[in-house]
Amino acid sequence: QVDVAAMVRLFGYVDVTDTGFIVAVLSIAFNPLFWNVVARWEHKTRALSQVFGSPRAACYCLGAVILVLNCVRSHCFTEAMKSQPKLEGWDFHWTYYSGLAISAVGTLFVISSFLALGFTGTFLGDYFGILMEEKVTSFPFSVLDNPMYWGSTAIYLGWSLMHASPAGLLLTAVVAISYTIAVLYEGPFTEEIYRQKQKGVKSK
Predict the structure, then answer these.
(1) How many CA atoms lie within 13 A of 182 on its CB side?
(2) Torsion sign across C-alpha atoms 8, 12, 15, 20
(3) Among 150, 157, 25, 7, which Cα is nearest to 79's?
(4) b/e string for 83-107 if b means 16 or more Cβ within 10 A?
(5) Along the 204 residues of the chain, how does pLDDT read in single tens digits?
(6) Is residue 39 within 8 Å of residue 62, measured between CB atoms?
(7) Largest Cα–Cα distance of the chain, in whole Å?
(8) Listed residue (110, 119, 111, 135) closest to 58, CA to CA
(9) Structure pTM?
(10) What does the alpha-carbon distance between residue 160 and residue 99 come to, in Å, rounded to a whole number?
C-alpha cells in the first residue's frame, strides 16, 4: 500500500507553480509528442524525405533534432531540481550511490538499445520506410520491452536520488507517464507498419 502521508510530505517540498518546474514539465511532455506527430506526418506524406532528398537523410535530421530536444529537457529537469529544496533525510551517501547505481543501469539500457537498433532503428526509421529485417530480441530487449524509454526514466530517477530532490522524483513520474502514453501511441502503429510489410512480401 502507498503511504499517503509520506507522499504528501515528500511533495510538500515541491513548488509546482515555480516557472522552472513548469518549463521542465512542458519539455518532458513536448518531446514524445513532437517526434510522434512529425514521424506520423512523414509516414503519411513523405514530405521530409522529399525535402532532404532521401528517407535516411530525413531520419538522421529528425534524430538530431530529437537529441537536441532531449538535451534541453535534461537541462530543464536539472535546473528545476536545483531551484527547489532537497529532502533532508535523503541527503546521504547511501542515497547518492543508490541513485548512481540506478542511473548506471539506465545508461546501460539506453546505450545497449541504441547499439541493438542502430540510429535509424532508434529514431523512428520505420516511419520513414527504413524497416528492420526482423524484430530485435537480443539484450536489452530480452529483459524488457522499450528499454530505451525505461532506461531513460531510470537515469532521471537516479539523478533525482543523487540530488535528494522531491521535485526530481515528481518530474521523473512525469517522464514515466509521458513514455507510457508514447508506448501506447507508438506500439500499435509500428506493428501495423510491419504487418503491411509482411502483406507486401506475401503478395509478391
Answers:
(1) 22
(2) negative
(3) 25
(4) ebebbeebeeeebbebbeebbebbe
(5) 445 565 566 667 889 999 999 999 999 999 999 999 999 999 999 999 999 999 999 999 999 999 999 999 999 999 999 999 988 777 678 899 999 999 999 999 999 999 999 999 999 999 999 988 877 888 999 999 899 999 999 999 999 999 999 999 999 999 999 999 999 988 888 888 878 867 665 555
(6) yes
(7) 66
(8) 119
(9) 0.89
(10) 7
Structural domain boundaries in the chain: 4-199
Closest CA to 11 of 165, 157, 160, 155: 165
In angstroms, the Cα distances linking 20 to 24, 27, 40, 147, 200 are: 6, 11, 31, 28, 49
Question: Rounded CA gap, 140 and 112, in Å?
Answer: 6
Place of cell 532521401: 54
The C-alpha cell at 37 is 506527430
Please report which helix (H) or strand (E) contains residue 171, including its range. Answer: helix 166-203
Spatial separation of the C-alpha atoms in residues 98 and 117, rounded to whole Å: 29
